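User: quick one - fold this with glutamine bound?
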Amino acid sequence: MRGFDFEAIGLRSDDAESLDFFPPHYRIGRTKYIIVTGGVMSGVGKGVFTASLAHLLQFLGFSVSVIKIDGYLNLDAGTLNPYRHGETFVLDDGTECDLDLGTYERFLDTTLNRNNYMTSGKIYSRILAKERRGEYLGRDVQIVPHVTGEIKYLIREKAKEGPYDMVLVEIGGTVGDIENLHFIEAARELMNDEGRDNIMFAHVTVVPWSDTTGEQKSKPTQHSVKKLLEMGIQPDIIVCRSKDPLQRKVREKISLHCNVPIDHVISSPDVESIYTLPFLFQQQRLAEITVHRLHLNMPYPAKEDAQIPFEPYVQHVQRHNPTLTVAVTGKYSSMRDSYISITNALQHTEPFERVRINLRFIDTTEYDDPTVPLHKCLDGVHGIIVPGGYGLRGTEGMIRFIQYAREQQLPYLGLCLGFQLAAIEFARHVCGLEKATSTEFDPHTPEPVISLLPEQETIRDLGGTQRLGGHEVVLLPGTRVHHIYGKDVIRERFRHRYELNNLYKDTLEKAGLLFCGMTPDHRIMQILDYPAHPFFIATQFHPEWTSRPLRPHPLFREFIRAAKRHQEQ
Ligand code: GLN
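Assistant: Sure. Structure tokens for the protein plus glutamine:
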């Protein structure tokens, strides 16, 4: 069905106030929508809640997808600084996006695409291009209906792409931010267009603890719900983030003041592992409430004690497993969210390797100076990871950590920049090429062990121009890495401009380094291994982006096994 037949009621479309924002053959009611907004403050786990709800619905048998909306004007997250926004996550199709997309992929064990991510910049650039093409037929282009219409159109296109039973839409930021006003307005319009039975609103807020009165406080939640009501939206469920489980009294207050039944006030306390959250929400009947609210039937009778997929995590947090310490030595270490996929990939190994991993984030910029000793901060460390990064600052420190790991037989896993720096470290200290470096740090170096990918040489723009997304990597038969993966060809995700300069490959290999993974045409080296070491493996790609809760990435798993062996020594 098209959205609306204006002619049938005697209007020409240019007379009409609302335009047609329905994709061709769209059927109202086929897909139900769940809109997730945030209140009080951001960064409290809206993404994890959205992913948990999607996970529960998928577990019940519904086909679901999730869209993340960010208010900023950047076209994508590619040019954002990880210090300010946390990690940039990369999808298989090369989209550089918000880290929440990583959470969704992990909770749904699925691969998302560029249509699962929307920014104001993306909406506006589509609108401005249409305006230049004359598609608005002489009308003034406005926030309502054009911007909100474009948002609704893209949400519906995603729904149709499945087609999905449900599409969850997480609106970034908090209600009241100027940046996301048009998205919240679009959600309100969506309710009007699609019908109240086809949409549910979940509002995630914070319930702080007051030391003075010794109780949880509901007022910030009440205020943020009022704000949402001003915008025409009554939330159906309210999810309260708090340190401890929600007190009965607070639940009642929120129910009374915010117009929701008491069992629609969901408690989301701090937990040791986010993968136990679906279990916690299942105990509060979150999926049932949602299914009921959307006037759907449960696909099959819900079993009270049905095992949930993330059961290994529920068991893991109750076990007393030995603790390992892994150091992540990067330059964005002061902002934890910069390495959120690495943190997750390590957590994925925990229930399977029966360990608890204690992460030590070390800011390498403090160790660029060779006179600052390393051993103190590495005391009790069982493995080192050098993560991805850009620019010179902090890299001399990273090289020192890599040298330490290599010489002390400490397990080492290098990711992207960690691959490039491992090659440089080896060239300098094993092959005697003292001046070895990357042309990223010194464009005129006499020893460019790492240099620009040839296709990058003519590129000037910074946004969206790196070698991005999923690519195939062939593994050399008989090598340690081939054994770890148990496959000849793998698919991994990339984000880089620089690569190993093949002029140095022989020199490095003669000294004992082994390049055991490369592009199918054998031109670009993608994995290095130092077979003489218990575990010294580095990849030009980012294995952390494809690790999944029930399928820990083989390289991370093997790294943790090596760390365990190191600890036992
Ligand atoms: N700065 C390096 C490059 O562009 C590494 C990138 C990364 O670690 N993601 O190739």
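One thing worth noting: The chain has a mean pLDDT of 91.
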